[in-house]
Amino acid sequence: MQSQDVAPGPGRPSSSAASTAASAASTGPLVDVEQAEAALVEHYPRLARLAYLVLPPDLGRGRRVMTAHALTQRALPRGRTPVPVIPAQSTGPDGDPGYTLVRLQVLRTALEAGRPLKRLAWPRRSQLPPSLPQVWGLKLFPRSGGAEELALDQRLSALSGPARAAYVLRGLEKLPDTDVRKVLTAAGVDDVDAALSEAGGVAARYALLESPAFDPCSLQARPTDLMRRRQHTKAALAAVAAVVVCGALLGLPGDGWGPDGAAAPAYARNPAAEAALDPARVTRVAPTAWQTSARTDFSVWPARGGLTADRELLRRALAVWARPGENVRVAATTGTPSGGPAGPPQLLYAGAVDDVRVVILYDGLRIARYAEPKDGTTGAALDFARVDGATGPEANAVVLSRTDGNVRFLTAPWVRKAAERDLLKPGAGAMDLALTDGVTAALAAPAVQSGTCTSWNVLQVTDSSGTRLLTDLSELVPARLTTGRPGSTHEASSARGLRAWAPFACSLSAVRGAGVRTVNTWEYATQPLPDASGLAAWVCTRAETWRGDGARVLAQFQTPGGKYGSVATKAENVPACGPRDPHVLAGVLWKSQAGSWYVLAAGSRGTTSITATGAAGGSAQGSLLAVKTKQGAHAELKGTLRDGRSINGLG
């Protein structure tokens, strides 16, 4: 029960490097090693992100990650060091000279790493591959972003190192240009004006710099080229064996070599794997197959889009799916494998959408979405979503693209109409969306909202069986919304369902990115409030996942006259509030209008008694409890069901 007032490394640089910085600007206080170390440890993720963004993109995402960490860890001075009078960032470590010192060293070495090697001159340490950290057998790279992050990364890659540094100091460190000049000058940039001018040619999408796509501390792991490793291992073993055999033969009389044995070739061609990469063998379903099929799932979707005949595009999509390179941003919903297809997948879509070319494929278990820039620049995105068992409403739509806070969907062939609806405004009606060859017009995506939740736009689709609501939860497949007691749920598109969801729509943000399949909400109890404060509602919201486990349950509480509900408590991986166990018990610490504090609790139908223990002890017969207490009190809840079974409070 949550309290709730519903009156609510290895090497270190020489000190000479720091003295160079001091000569570039007037010096400030001396910083000792302990102060610099404290700043580095406290702000390590930000410093590593700064290094990653400034490093040259042609290093590849994996080496950029390792180099960013190496440069950040080597930014610690050897002794007391004077600090140039350069301000720290405007938010965060404001005025910390330790942070200023290590940030300057990180920036200087990141710029050095991007300079070309000179003939007849020893390379600087930062220009060489990092000796540490190292991870053998794995490639590490940041999590995948969307089309906006990919576009920004491509624009930054076209800038010079100093211009990238200027852009990052403006956006990530939030420094004004006068301070950016000082930092760049202290870092050894010769032409600061040119760097600022070049950086100004890129749109100021500074918020994207905080994206996980540019975070070298939140990483994904993939194996290195397994076939190449196997070949190298075999070659090394063969070389060792050859040396041993040669040595033995040279020590024996006579001549001739021993037999090689029945060794397999270094690479055995796999027909199934080759077929999966052949664009000519991609499965295509007839446009009318869904009309006569007994199935209503992704297997009967026809191939749509203007580029379904582009074999080169399909070849690239299949090859990237099987062997994503370092410049590919790979993302998969929780519990979704991201390996290549076992055989030729089914083509659902291939076409140009906004600024990218998109290919959507289906292998019977997963939806895979491949996207590449239309301008031919390098880099691509690959997203996976598990959809096994999807049928009817759950196979009605797939996210096609996200751009500038908007999302487009590819809908099932049986969808006849699409509309956009604000879930927070049940009486406002739905706004029709144009539907072209199954592709919807763009609608505002709730998954990218920040700050106060003032709207939650959902996709409303109509087919021959009725109208459904689907919500984008930052995943490839939208989640279906329902209402009603577990075991007898119905679509949320009815007037009653819309009213039930309106106060609790913003709570959907709590289940983003969890691989959610469906979300159901239902009112399980109403409770008269003490001090004649009116009637409150208790609502349970349960998000089921595609993988079966990991379901998230929220117990929510709405006071009389309140526009929005609030989360009282939550739990994960519990059967409560679901088809297997529809019972739920939850509590909240509440302050009345008279100023008194109470522990309130409510159980679902079939609860015969509730007991609270702890700082706010008490019990009550029936499914409702109200115990007067003090601010900050906590209590453990336990209930008894009509069949004699005990039930614990959620959370």
Features:
disordered N terminus, 10-stranded mixed beta sheet, 651 residues, 5-stranded mixed beta sheet, alpha+beta
Task: Give a structural overview.
The chain has 651 residues and is α+β, with helices and mostly antiparallel strands. 24% of the residues lie in helices and 28% in strands. The protein is built from 14 helices and 32 strands. Helix 3 runs parallel beside helix 5 and helix 7 (161-171) crosses helix 9.
In short:
The protein is built from 14 helices and 32 strands. It is an alpha+beta fold and about 650 residues long. Strands 13, 14, 18, 19, 20, 21, 22, 23, 24 and 25 form a ten-stranded mixed beta sheet that branches. A five-stranded mixed beta sheet has the order 6-10-9-8-7. A four-stranded mixed beta sheet has the order 1-26-27-30, with no helix packed on it.
Instruction: Estimate the strand proportion.
Output: 25-35%
Number of helix segments? 14
Tell the overall outline.
Answer: globular
Strand elements, count: 32
- From the N-terminal CA to the C-terminal CA, the straight-line distance is 6 Å
* Sheet with the most strands, sense and barrel status: 10 strands, mixed
Helix content: 10-25%
Low-confidence stretches: 2-26, 88-92, 245-268
The pLDDT mean sits at 83
Based on CA atoms alone, the radius of gyration comes out at 30 Å
Structural class comes to alpha+beta
Q: How is the secondary structure organized here?
A:
Elements: E1 2-3, H1 15-24, E2 27-31, H2 33-42, H3 44-54, H4 61-73, E3 81-84, H5 97-113, E4 138-142, H6 147-157, H7 161-171, H8 177-186, H9 192-200, E5 219-223, H10 226-250, H11 271-276, H12 289-292, H13 311-322, E6 328-332, E7 346-353, E8 356-362, E9 366-373, E10 380-386, E11 397-403, E12 406-411, E13 417-422, E14 431-433, E15 435-436, E16 439-440, E17 443-444, E18 457-463, E19 466-471, E20 479-483, E21 490-491, H14 495-501, E22 516-528, E23 535-545, E24 552-558, E25 566-572, E26 585-591, E27 597-603, E28 607-614, E29 618-621, E30 624-629, E31 635-641, E32 646-648
Parallel strand pairs: 1-26, 6-10, 20-22
Antiparallel strand pairs: 2-3, 4-5, 7-8, 8-9, 9-10, 11-12, 12-17, 13-14, 13-18, 15-16, 18-19, 19-20, 20-21, 22-23, 23-24, 24-25, 26-27, 27-30, 28-29, 28-31, 31-32
Helix pairs in contact: 2-5, 3-4, 3-5, 7-8, 7-9
